[in-house]
Amino acid sequence: MRFFSDNAAPVHPAVLDALAAANTLDTAYDGDRWSAALDRRFAELFETECRVLWVPTGTAANCLALAALCPPYGGVICHREAHIQVDEAGAPEFYTHGAKLLLAEGDGAKLTPAGIAGVLAGIRGDVHQVPAHAVSITNATEYGLIYTPDEVAAIGELARARGLGLHMDGARFANAVAALGCHPADVTWRAGVDALSFGFVKNGGMNAEALVFFRPELAAASLRRRKRAGHLQSKGRYLAAQILAMLDSDLWLANGRAANAGARLLAEAAGTRLVHAVQANEVFLRLTAGEAARLRGAGFDFYDWGVGEARLVISWNQTAADIRPLADAIRAL
Amino acid sequence: MRFFSDNAAPVHPAVLDALAAANTLDTAYDGDRWSAALDRRFAELFETECRVLWVPTGTAANCLALAALCPPYGGVICHREAHIQVDEAGAPEFYTHGAKLLLAEGDGAKLTPAGIAGVLAGIRGDVHQVPAHAVSITNATEYGLIYTPDEVAAIGELARARGLGLHMDGARFANAVAALGCHPADVTWRAGVDALSFGFVKNGGMNAEALVFFRPELAAASLRRRKRAGHLQSKGRYLAAQILAMLDSDLWLANGRAANAGARLLAEAAGTRLVHAVQANEVFLRLTAGEAARLRGAGFDFYDWGVGEARLVISWNQTAADIRPLADAIRAL
Amino acid sequence: MRFFSDNAAPVHPAVLDALAAANTLDTAYDGDRWSAALDRRFAELFETECRVLWVPTGTAANCLALAALCPPYGGVICHREAHIQVDEAGAPEFYTHGAKLLLAEGDGAKLTPAGIAGVLAGIRGDVHQVPAHAVSITNATEYGLIYTPDEVAAIGELARARGLGLHMDGARFANAVAALGCHPADVTWRAGVDALSFGFVKNGGMNAEALVFFRPELAAASLRRRKRAGHLQSKGRYLAAQILAMLDSDLWLANGRAANAGARLLAEAAGTRLVHAVQANEVFLRLTAGEAARLRGAGFDFYDWGVGEARLVISWNQTAADIRPLADAIRAL
Amino acid sequence: MRFFSDNAAPVHPAVLDALAAANTLDTAYDGDRWSAALDRRFAELFETECRVLWVPTGTAANCLALAALCPPYGGVICHREAHIQVDEAGAPEFYTHGAKLLLAEGDGAKLTPAGIAGVLAGIRGDVHQVPAHAVSITNATEYGLIYTPDEVAAIGELARARGLGLHMDGARFANAVAALGCHPADVTWRAGVDALSFGFVKNGGMNAEALVFFRPELAAASLRRRKRAGHLQSKGRYLAAQILAMLDSDLWLANGRAANAGARLLAEAAGTRLVHAVQANEVFLRLTAGEAARLRGAGFDFYDWGVGEARLVISWNQTAADIRPLADAIRAL
Fold first, then answer.
1. Which part of the chain is the Aromatic amino acid beta-eliminating lyase/threonine aldolase domain (chains A, B, C, D) (predicted)?
2. How many whole angstroms separate alpha carbon D234 and alpha carbon D241?
């Protein structure tokens, strides 16, 4: 059983159905009826006007957002272990034409106003240093922690006060909202978020993410940047249809809840082995090399995460029956 | 009936089936069994070693190829009406970090050795001018014309002699090969092509194109550039599966032939109205505004192409029964 | 005697004197008293508020201006033979991060509103094409022609109406103003110019040009871009001092007039051999290969300019006595 | 008396003389006799073939070197407090098209093989992370420490073993070599350095630095990049002449020794206040706010360097007589 990541899980049947249903001729690019429905559909969900672009990957969504918020000569404050810093191969630098990621600290890859303020305090205002133009936070974080609406709002307030844009990498936004039980607006635009990478791929989609701009004026240039990056698919309706299917009947939330519930099963089994609180669908454990080998020998796959630690991620489609054998095996170590 | 473009046509059922068949857990990114099969599958098709990257759009394929062949301070010779120059929103400049497209002339968007040599002759060797590093040709061209193996080879020879890489934009490569009746190797690497954007989207795919490197050493940096551009999809198996489905039983060729045959029906009807010879699946007609309006009034949609001209493109799924009413209407003008 | 270009002429003694006079400790970068004086000094000259950045080359001035006026996904309309297109090695693409130069035609490298409008008419508004954001004109042009205030104003009006910025490459601005006899404001900001590359190097300076923003709000980002491009010299006072020396007692104008006068001597000698009217300090002649060889044999050096033509440029320090032997030799051909 | 930095000191009279001596017509750009002499002159100095480009700033030299050693998708290992990271406004990212600076630790801004190996160990080889392509060290460091030939050689060996290029930022190379008393080759190419930014501006020059490639094959692309960055001055002879004047009779070394000697005077006075050993011409002191104010009140200017510390830099032209009053004032605190 694989617990490497949720990013390779199968696609939800409703998404496949949506692809089949969209398999008819319509206008190319984003002129089709599915794409055209996105702005309104997300406006309903978020209870505010927004502009939405489909893209196939979280990297594309994140980096288009950063390029919208930061000029080439500026910087984006993010966590030292943020996905955009660690695992996107320099894509932020590519899309922003060389803007700098300005690294802050924080437990579990979580930024705080104090951490952000510390970065800002270290930047002189002269032209020799790179000025911050934006902040990027990940919710849920790379370590499965959740920012609450209040925590985001505190960052949002600081950002606004200092003239910085605020981006949220929501590769696991569904898991975060499912865990919080809040309205999605409360943890985004109402808390000061300007642009959200709303992830669907890890949550049951195939290859469609939504880049949601809560400041609609940011979208125009991003539409051009999307094309310029080769992301304007001519049959865009197959991306829009995936997203709409995930939003229908709140499938995104149901899938997020399911994955979170699976992670809780593991968390209970792990007990004091946990490196971070398990708030979403990721579980970080202390495991000796021998213990890790024993689990693998029993058929469970996962990533080592530094020395003596392991990462296990639960996918939307992994049931309690799938997970319990692993939970039992962890307990039995 | 829509004749705007083949780029928005429905997806072939075999492709949808392939997506469903791939809907199981496998390794993320391009570590899955479908992606892993591509190099060998294309090597069989082309009868030579090659390295293949899936990407979702032709723009991504083209621009990754150009970035592999041309440094930021170099230039790429292409036709003044090449898709990379006219309709990719500056994506070549983005991917190459500002390389210059060096524009050549030629009937029907077709380059010739003489045209390329003319561009080269106009470039001084000093550091004040942008040196050519590559040539990019489109087969079939933007006007539906075909380069024969001999024509490509003549360009390939010039390119090699002058130290230039050679890229082929094959958004409609299937249509070209179907029309030529040649082996795909003859019109590509045997004729000097280093990198081919092998298009499947216009030909029945959903959102997968293959970037084929016939010089395998070009692939390593391109794999990094693909990630950096946000094109490394975590569920890449759904792209690879599409491509494999299109290659199975030469579906790509069958679809290309079908579209070409449809275009011939229109060409016969158009007679002296034709602006360019109809060699693939595009038909350029002389139409007065009144004539165009009459056709549209009868339910046929297409693009105006400059003043007094129109472009009609036949898709893989348009049958003779679909096309004949338009052919008749054109005859009746 | 060399007539290759004015760009390698000696430095005016007043400029050398200014360097010596500045040879004392002062604040680094542009914090010194000379640099600090530039804004006010140019404001007096142009009778309007302006922000001025010294840079060592015209290429740097031009490209910082273009980057201020055009985003990476935009385009700059310029003449097919503009220096920024032909002789700056892709620097505009580097500084703008891949914006496209959109080429217009016009006699003697001179743009017209009609030529610009023609380029604009060829650009669709969709995201597949590169939208124009700016126009760049060269005064005097690369062929030594002059835009009058009315001609610039007509372009400025079109630019404003279409939302385009207007840049003037004034590598030979002194020659243009000297020839026009107008106030420098009339041919720049009063005619709609937003940014001027005010050249001093060809006119007696050593390595200092002034980038003049007539829209002061454009300067802030450009100050950062200048540093980022490695152009913020720590001993900037030696650039500012050069520029101030050239402005003192209108030395720039005197030098421009002197060079123009020399060119007129050649123009009279050339008569019907002239390819372009001689309005500034450049002379383009029809010369057979034999005639060119004869002149060179007599000790006169110059560039061939295509087949059967030659370019001769007069520098600020070439006197009538220097030039007459060449004029006589041309007459004697 | 100003002790802010050596970067704004006056120009050595020999440099001004050289400018005057070069004030004659010669070929433009780097075609003149002074520029043409550089390769050979540096080859003599370094006892190896090298290719040399003049540029006006250390930022330009550094960033051209980095662009020669690292592709856009790669990374450069440098110290967290390296000038290229902290004080060049993102110029490395601009010139490299978005390569990443990979930050290492080390006392006094000095890298060690272990520190570099630690960074390398943290980078996975997959395409999701940015691979290191080069190392950049500063000699003397930003804190005035010196790398010995052995220390550089140890880094050079690691670099070669791992396939990394090695760049040395020698903004204060003269101070380093003067302090080491070694042959300049021993601390550069013989120790594995591929490219050296050889600084002259801080050491008595006006606005000319030398980018020295010890791997000559790196120069060709850099010549194009220099032009493309707007750094190819048309009257380049005035830069080359400065550099040649600094090399004549080892003026660069004499100036470096003089500044170092001045710093030793301060170091002796500072005693236990020193934050770092004083090995070149920079002195970092512990000073309370009150003490700093007292020194300033006495007419001594310098930078605060974090809380409770100050930086004082000695310039080539500051004599013992200039420095003693400050030394005495520090002793008297």
1. 3-286
2. 14
